[in-house]
Amino acid sequence: MRGLVLTLLNQMVEERLGFEVWERALEVVRPSSGGVYTAGERYDDAELGALVAALADITALPADTLVTDLGRYTLAAFARMHPEHFRDRSARELLLSVDRVIHIEVRKLHPDASLPAFEYETSDPDRLVMLYRSPRRMCAFAVGLVEGVARHYATPIHHRETRCLHRGDDHCRFELAFGEPGLAA
Questions:
Q1: Is the pTM of this model over 0.70?
Q2: How far apart are CA 57 and CA 23, in angstroms?
Q3: Residue 180 pLDDT level (bands cut at 50, 70, 90)
């Protein structure tokens, strides 16, 4: 895993929960990195899981809630760092660009990056189905990214997950409806 996600987790926890909470999590986990992360470096995936588990224990927040919050936080950070990917696109267009544009750009900078794979079903302009595959099984992070996109574009995105890696499926299936009160069909 690239250090950017761990760096953003550190920032989010310090901003929202306090420096002391982050330090306590580092004391519990004692990561091999020492808890010092740089965006472009690679770190063991287990470090993120261990930190989230420790933070869940310390704060009594569910781990999935923390990971979803991290997804929202990450989307906002990406929008600040790379505004060119967010301009002149709708919320739906941005989500469609993740695998087709954004991940291609990431691979140019980091050819060894281990990125999730997304496939799309796009028959209706107000709906989108995203299929997510990743050995990291961070579907809660993907939910946070979708919610972050909705917030960034001030566009309601109603979503439901009809398949999930955590329920034994080989992928997660997110059914999205844009600007409608009901869930995607």
A1: yes
A2: 14
A3: low
